[in-house]
Write a structure and sequence with these properties.
The protein has 12 helices and 8 strands. The protein has 369 residues and is α/β, with parallel strands linked by helices. Strand 6, helix 8 and strand 7 form a beta-alpha-beta unit. The relative contact order is 0.10.
Length: 369
């Protein structure tokens, strides 16, 4: 890790429920904690301190996300109690890591798949202003911290999820108009190479255009959780597709001056959330034996495009979706649309479940069929 990367994001153990309810240290009787004020920072501390030892930057993920908040406890509270608990959580967590973690994902996945606000416990108890309030609390807790909003399926302007991508941009623009202390955003980039409909991979042009318009708001943009699922492609196309997606998406992103980082959601296929939520796959840069894959070299080529002697954009089509020979981007592996249009299953207004969970359910229904 310290040889190949210069930054770490804590994938799970900085989330609210894992620190307070699901995975705290020993409790009397061995039962899970139901006291929101009881924190166990042991696992997160170990990761953060290791990264700092090796001069790596750390991003905190995440202060407010309904999926990994102790929802069963919050649902029983009054709005005022939820407000106080959320404020205390932000101050407690940021205070514990003050000076060690200087960049935070403040709010995660507040948008439903159709671009409306997700019907979650924070929206029901506090109203739509909870997003702004979380950023203001985070700024109060650490005025020097870089504060980010993070979401999924928002990577491509005028792409497969255009409505949500537009809503993401409008949410950021609205926060900026109200002088909310937000400094940037993350595009998750959990990509399914075999996806169709709303799950189709965005093209480099779409990603570049989305980053460009967000940058004009005065915000930075990062690819925040990238992995590329390939197991639903024919075996001979998997590494071809994965290498091209990592290479071309990042090369396109690097052409925008506001783009400031790439974070992958794990680094080895041996340990990936994809296996737990979808199916067996190989979505990352290193295989399950920790050996470099074609995807690794594709990403390295993209990074080389901005190094001395490199060619910015790395020859990727940036202003159209076809190359100089007229081939559509990804033509070697991109999948055709199915005859039956089941993709509308994930276009649900105000849905509280995130896109990745709905997509997982959809994948399971296809397997059962």
């Amino acid at each position: 890790l310290s040889r190949e990367f210069n930054a770490v994001v804590v994938e799970h153990h900085l989330k609210w429920a894992p620190m307070c309810v699901a995975e705290p240290g020993p409790c009397p009787g061995g039962e899970p904690s139901n006291r929101l004020g009881r924190y166990d920072f042991h696992h997160a501390d170990a990761i953060v301190d290791w990264a700092i030892k090796y001069n790596m930057k750390v991003k905190g993920h995440v202060l407010a996300w309904h999926v990994t908040s102790p929802g069963n406890l919050l649902e029983e509270m009054t709005p005022q109690q939820v407000k106080e608990e959320l404020r205390r959580h932000i101050f407690t967590t940021m205070g514990h890591f003050y000076g060690r973690i200087k960049t935070w994902d403040v709010v995660n996945e507040a948008l439903a798949p159709d671009g409306t606000l997700a019907d979650n416990v924070f929206l029901r108890k506090l109203g739509p202003g909870y997003i702004e309030q979380c950023f203001r609390w985070a700024h109060q807790a650490d005025p020097e911290a870089i504060l980010l909003y993070n979401d999924n399926k928002v990577e491509g302007m005028n792409g497969p999820n255009a409505r949500k991508a537009d809503a993401f941009y409008q949410l950021l623009a609205d926060l900026k108009r109200r002088n909310v202390p937000i400094h940037g955003c993350g595009l998750q980039a959990h990509i399914n190479a075999a996806g169709t409909g709303k799950n189709r991979p965005p093209t480099p042009r779409m990603v570049k255009n989305q980053i460009h318009r967000i940058g004009k708001l005065g915000l930075t943009v990062n690819i925040s959780e990238m992995d590329v699922r390939v197991s639903q492609l024919p075996p001979n196309l998997r590494q071809v597709a994965q290498r091209q997606i990592y290479r071309d998406i990042i090369a396109a992103a690097l052409t925008e001056s506001c783009f400031d980082g790439i974070w992958t959601w794990g680094f080895t296929d041996r340990h990936t959330w994809v296996t737990h939520f979808y199916y067996d796959d190989e979505p990352l840069l290193f295989d399950d034996e920790y050996m470099r894959k074609e995807a690794y070299y594709g990403l390295r080529e993209a990074l080389s495009s901005i190094a001395p002697g490199g060619v910015v954009g790395a020859g990727v089509p940036l202003y159209q979706d076809e190359d100089v020979d007229g081939n559509t981007w990804g033509h070697l592996w991109i999948q055709g649309e199915p005859e039956s249009e089941n993709q509308q299953l994930i276009d649900v207004g105000g849905e509280a479940k995130p896109d990745w969970e709905l997509e997982s359910e959809e994948a399971s229904s296809y397997q059962l069929m």
